[in-house]
Amino acid sequence: MNEILVKKVLTPVTKLVVVKNSYVAAKVKPGQFIILRVRENGERIPLTVADYDREAGTITLVFQEVGLTTRLLGQLSVGDCMLNLVGPLGVPAELPEKGTVVAAGGGVGVAPILPKCKEMHKRGVRVVSIIGARSKDLIIMEGEIRASSDEVHICTDDGSRGFHGYVADGLKELIAGGLKMDEVIAIGPMPMMRATCDVTKPFGIKTWVSMNPIMVDGTGMCGACRVTVGGQTKFCCVDGPMFDGHQVDWDEAWRRANVYRDEEKIANERCASCGGDR
Amino acid sequence: MPVKQRTAMPVQDPKERIANFDQVAQGYTEEMAASEAARCLQCKNPTCMAGCPVAVKIPAFIKLIKDRKYQEAIDTIKETNNLPAVCGRVCPQETQCETVCVLARTGQPIAIGRLERFAADWGAQHGTTKVEKAQPSGKKIAVVGAGPAGLTCAADLAKLGYQVTIFESLHAPGGVLIYGIPEFRLPKDVVRREVGYVKSLGVHIETDIVIGRTITIDEIFDDGYEAVFVGSGAGLPMFMRIPGENLNGVYSANEWLTRINLMKAMRFPEFDTPIKKGRKVAVVGAGNVAMDAVRCALRLGAERAMIVYRRGRQEMPARAEEVENAGEEGVEFHLLTNPTRVLGNEKGWVTGLECIRMELGEPDKSGRRRPVPVPGSEFVMECDIVVMALGTTPNPILSATTQGLNAQTWGGLIADEKTGRTTKPRVWAGGDAVTGSATVILAMGAGKAAAKDVDEYLRSGEGKWA
């Protein structure tokens, strides 16, 4: 269980692993996540499932090496096992049966957008994907997204490819250009999701976001993942992770995401000195 | 004849112990145990056993300790109690077996819990408890949750010859024993030992499985299991719904304790999970969990560790011993004080707790005098960490994903008090999942009762369910 069968380096900081876990593979639906632990003494972190193969009993995880645990995860090789992996957790995304949906993915957020695109595409929804990154070499999973979209737009912050600017700005252009959509699903770093919501709000376009707060158990027990949505406290792990982005209290979410910034620094420094491969 | 005093429990000095997570109560020596056991009157009609939810043969094991037959003592306890080293440490004996001890009226009941702990620890160190495996019945039973209720139910069923698998959602078995109760009251080595005993009976434990998500109860049945016992605990932490509760530095007691006990955040960065330690920590609530949380705060180095409770000392739900230990360690008790708002700075970190003074009015439904706010008495208590220890409600995942498994409006699973039978045939339940936050031993009692009923139901040819 939890053996890494495939490992790909997508960008210098983003990796993809295909992991054997027949339980999760059998059940997971788009939008759901898992919690994993890499080693003894390790912390529990959530990762959204990017793809799954029910027959092979595998799931795909894509992660950016930003903290200690994701860096440790990046050090595992094919044949290694994660110590623990539990899921699927959270509520599956409510995906429409018809109409036009814009799937906006920023950076590593393109990965969790993929299963939603796949499912909607299969259902016959018209999927318009806008994927972006800082620079053209950092765009991930473009081929997979293309295979599940009717239309794909690329954005880069530095203008090295496609639209010059953020994903949210790319979306704004498409709206200005007359693209009609029933809803938007935006997944990526918090500033990207927030900016996307700011773009769609004046037009009253329903916009789903996938929150990624700090979690411990991931089953509703600890309440670390509290998010305020529409003035009410929600537990992201059991009520989410997908929420109406126009209702999310982004200032609070950003603040809470950074609670352990000092500790993360300490942990990262320690990891660099304890034989990490970067 | 004057009654001899109870043999005192050796404890770590409060000044020393607040700097470590080692056990406060250090356990009886053989001499102390034998001397305490000798106080037992060996009543012809003992009343103590009626006070024990798992019916430990109390006079019998105490006599064996008195006769220094420790192996037989622990074997006798284990006939009915699968987790004696846990019970000897965390059961509220003062409201159970010891309160109905004949000597209780003298104020000096036999220290039954301490003797139970002695026997269990002796057994772990020197003992050779033989595990008699029952004739396999060939029937498979699933247990949801490896906490006190689940471990007890599983062990009893294994002893009866059933092939039992426990599914646990966390990465380590033990439930509240491992994530909730701190090391200084219940060392995790002791929990692992007790879990090891349950496994030695043939119980298989699968971690990292969330029943309702990873596998559903109906799929468990499809897989050939003949009965399911749900001991999933009380999941969701309650908050006060006051402004400022999502500021940085506000924890639920569950999160605070899980980071410390399960994830060992007090040893960050040696362990990867961090925690904000806090200089001034306010814990809201006055149950056992609140006492655990506030005493952990001291051990993490807090200068001030404060209990904030809206009722008075008499009404505190925590065990007297825990309150006393906390007091000795320097915990401040701000009673008749109710938080009205959590205050924060411009960066969103907790700076204080706005509270209002309370006074006790007429008795409420619980029989306790209802606290009412004193108008205009608001004041600010300075603190940088707030821990909400207000209790929990059962996790809705199971009732929401299992057709026919009904819950009360407040979330607790509906189950027969005596047998644990739920509204879904072949599904039993017990512990906090049914009652809401209660004690380890009540959960164990429910697990035990359910195991008995599961066996009767399956052996009697599965008669009427309800």
Strand content of chain A: 25-35%
Calculate the mean pLDDT score of chain A and round it: 95
Q: What is the helix fraction of residues of chain B, given as a range?
A: 25-40%
Net shape of chain A: globular
Instruction: Give the count of helical stretches of chain B.
Output: 16
- How far is the N terminus from the C terminus of chain B? 54 Å
Distance between the termini of chain A: 27 Å
Number of helices of chain A: 9
Radius of gyration of chain A: 18 Å
Low-confidence stretches of chain A: none
> Which whole number gives the mean pLDDT of chain B?
94
- SSE string of chain A, helix = H, strand = E? EEHEEEEHEEHEHEEHEHEEEHEHH
Q: State the secondary-structure class of chain A.
A: alpha/beta
What topology, given as strand order, has the largest sheet of chain A?
11-10-9-8-12-13-16
Assembly of the depicted chains:
heterodimer
Instruction: Give the number of DSSP strands of chain A.
Output: 16
Strand order of the largest sheet of chain B: 3-2-1-4-16
- Biggest β-sheet strands, sense, barrel of chain A: 7 strands, mixed
Strand content of chain B: 15-25%
> Radius of gyration of chain B in whole Å, from Cα?
23 Å
Main β-sheet of chain B, in a few words? 5 strands, parallel
What labels describe this entry?
heterodimer, A: 278 residues, alpha/beta, seven-stranded mixed sheet, four-stranded antiparallel sheet, 29% helix, 30% strand, B: 466 residues, five-stranded parallel sheet, 16 helices
What does this structure look like?
- The complex is a heterodimer of chains A (278) and B (466).
- With 278 residues, chain A is of the alpha/beta class.
- Chain A has helices at residues 22-27, 68-75, 110-123, 142-147, 167-176, 190-200, 236-239, 250-257, 261-273, and strands spanning 4-11, 14-20, 33-37, 45-48, 51-53, 58-64, 84-89, 100-106, 126-133, 151-156, 163-164, 183-187, 206-210, 226-229, 232-235, 242-244.
- In chain A, the strands form 4 sheets. Chain A has a 7-stranded mixed β-sheet, with helices on both faces. Chain A has a 4-stranded antiparallel β-sheet with strand order 1-2-6-5. A 3-stranded antiparallel β-sheet of chain A has the order 4-3-7.
- Chain A starts with a strand and ends in a 5-residue tail after the last helix.
- With 466 residues, chain B is of the alpha/beta class.
- In chain B, strand 11 (350-363) and strand 12 (369-373) form a beta hairpin.
- In chain B, helix 4 (70-80) packs across helix 6.
- The radius of gyration of chain B is 23 Å and the shape is globular.
- Chain A binds chain B through residues 23-24, 27, 37, 41-44, 68-69, 83-89, 216-217, 219-224, 226, 228, 233, 235, 238, 251-252, 255-256, 259-260, 263-264, 266-267, 270, and chain B through 169-171, 179, 207-210, 213-215, 235-237, 239, 241, 245-246, 248-249, 251-252, 254-255, 258-259, 263-264, 268-274, 276, 347-348, 395-397.
